Amino acid sequence: MLVTKLKEVWKEITLLSTWIASVAGAFIIPLPSWYASDDNTAFLMKFGVFIATALAGFLILYSLKNKMVQTWMRLSINFILILIGTYAAYHFTREAKTLPYLKKDIVIGNEFKDTNPFEAFEASHGFLPARNEQMMILLGDPEKAWTKESIMTNRIQLMVLLFLCYLFSAGFIISFCNLMILYKEKYTIKVEEKNVEKP
Description:
This protein has 199 residues and is mainly alpha-helical. Helix content is 73%, strand content 4%. The chain has six helices and two strands; from the N terminus they run H-H-H-E-E-H-H-H. The protein has helices at residues 2-28, 39-65, 69-96, 117-125, 135-138, 148-197, and strands at residues 98-101, 104-107. Strands 1-2 form a two-stranded antiparallel ribbon. Helix 1 runs antiparallel to helix 2 and helix 3 packs antiparallel against helix 6. The radius of gyration is 24 Å and the shape is elongated. The two termini are 25 Å apart.
């Protein structure tokens, strides 16, 4: 009886640990930088982490009631496939909507201002630097070239994709961990039954 209780407690501790580790990744993997941050951006980041944490917590509660190996196998496969797709979308979006500056990726916009500094630079120098050097013209401030609204739109899009990556990675880790625990329990029961059947 004591061993059974310890196994159940250990299972909950393991799932909780993976949940915490997954959500902690939100603070380890940085978002692209921007020249001037604001309170709205900071709030959205914290709110996204909170949502990811809450949904991952509900998945743990669901795991305590559902003991079907097939269910967790399907969930693990679905989560890893969605995670791969979401991360690919985040990666390509980040490449398209940021420019490097002093070893940082600065979020840019989609809509240029009326006074476009890139056109002025090209008109005066006769050429435009390569894409990975264009932020030098702006000294790291994208608001000199793009509208603030379009920059904020891209920031939010990148944040949403990254938070989805956190959420689906947490879902996969929890599902896969639960799947391994159920397989181990199933194997242990079979071994015990065989031992009982032996004369």
